[in-house]
Amino acid sequence: MENKKIICSMGGGFTSSALMPKILLEQYSKDQIEFINCVLPNEHPDMWKLFDAVENKLDIKINYIAYHPKTKYQIVSKKDRNNKEKLYTPFHIFMIQGFIGNSRNDPCSSILKRETIFNYVSSKYSQNDCVVAVGIHFDEFERSVAIRENWEDKGYETLFPLIQLKPYTKDEQIKYLKEWYNVEIDLYNKNFEHNNCAGACVKAGQRQWAMLWFYYPETYKEWENLELDWNKQWSEIRGKEYSILKISRDRKTQYILLKDFREQILEPAYNSNGEGFLSKFLQNLPGNPACMWCAAI
Predict the structure, then answer these.
(1) Parallel/antiparallel/unpaired status of strands 252-256 and 245-249
(2) Residue 152 lies in a domain
(3) pLDDT tens sequence across 86-141
(4) What's the whole-model pTM score?
(5) What is the dihedral of CA 124, 125, 131, 136, to 10 degrees?
(6) Which label site among 52, 131, 218, 285 has the fewest CB atoms less than 10 Å from its CB?
(7) Rg from Cα positions in the chain
(8) Residues 218-252: pLDDT tens digits?
(9) Is 72 found in the same domain as 185?
(10) Whose CA is closest to 261, among 279, 280, 290, 241?
């Protein structure tokens, strides 16, 4: 490990972006570590506040990369981190692929994150020259297996510096983000599972999409419109409408558009429950354990 470069893959959440850099710097020299983030321009602004705070507090430099169809990756400046004209969003990928992401299949993460970071790392380092560090605790062991296999199949070694550490609760994460970096993440404060895609994750399930509609209606509406646009282009070719979410009706699993989920389920429930919407209805919606199996880094 002494002569190998350590690639610190920072995903945007507490574990990989606030905790892991601290732990690595306690064990290795700063010069031995390259800190990397795969940029998606649809992130919540708090993500970039976190990265800037970590960079300043730890006196490190974070390299930003993003997907590019011709060159496989592109270097991204700080000013372009939210540039949807220059960078690719999940729905750019869905339109190109003709496939819309869902809880079982996430072409967005596969292309925008996994393939992009591999293309960057493999262009700079041989298989014997680096180790990819991933911020995962033992409660996400299933993810660590998938990530290790993905990289080992390509000939690269992985490192999980947090795998033996006790996971932090959400309250502890909020506390230490403030204590270490003087940063607050609004998604955490509102009890979202993670700090990616501004809360709009195709793998997250009905409960998180209901939370997104409740707390961030503009973001929900944006994805709702993008889903409708996708179906205008692809549903006739595919033979039917497809959607991010599915719902069980009459013991059958059916696709349900975000528009229909809002109009048929969320708005009536909110009108019936009022201030008790979160406690009486939202928490009873099915979540999705897909995050446990996510191989994104």
Answers:
(1) antiparallel
(2) yes
(3) 999 999 999 999 999 998 889 999 999 999 999 999 999 999 999 999 998 877 77
(4) 0.92
(5) 30
(6) 218
(7) 20
(8) 999 999 999 999 999 998 888 888 999 998 877 78
(9) yes
(10) 241
The answer to whether 245 touches 220, Cβ cutoff 8 Å, is: no
CA 169 to chain centre: 19
Which pair of tokens denotes residue 88? 């690719």
In Å, how far are 150, 188, 195, 248, 292 from 192, measured between CA atoms? 27, 5, 7, 23, 15
Domain boundary among 190, 208, 239: 190
CA angle 63, 37, 192 (to 5 degrees): 145
Identify whether the C-beta of residue 55 lies closer than 8 Å to the C-beta of residue 64: no
Instruction: Report the CATH number that the domain containing residue 185 is assigned in CATH.
Output: 3.40.50.620
Mean pLDDT across the chain, nearest whole number?
Answer: 91
**Whether residue 201 sits in one domain with residue 183:** no
Domains contained in the chain, number = 2
273 in a structural domain: yes
